[in-house]
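Let us practice reading a record.
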Amino acid sequence: MQSYDQDFHAKVRPGDLLVGGPNFGYGHPHYPPMRAMLHLGIGGVIAESFSPGYWRGEISMGFPQASCSGILGLVERWDELELDWDKNEVRNLTKGRTLLIEPLSYADRQMLDAGGLIPYLKRPMPSAEPAQRGTSSCNAQA
């Protein structure tokens, strides 16, 4: 971000969201930049679309991302945004406009809520009662 804005690190506030264009993160997961974004307090990325390898890698690290077609037309730099995962929408509070985001899969949502793949896999599993086997009857046909 230094080549884009020398003072970016000083302007970012905890919880700020980055907005990106199509095929954001093209190529592969980018762990060092993601860790730097987390260190700055960036709460996630909203982009027109994501590179599949980048998406999977960052989600598995617990870094929130939302695909939102039309996001570049919804925001200007430093607009105040609100991302609602339950309603699958992003709201531009500065302009009073809303767009739908692509819903996360159940597994991706659970992984983000857990903080990444490792905490997701280590979480306690709910105990399941063994299935009750009842009896059934039928009339045999000869």
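A brief commentary: The radius of gyration is 21 Å.
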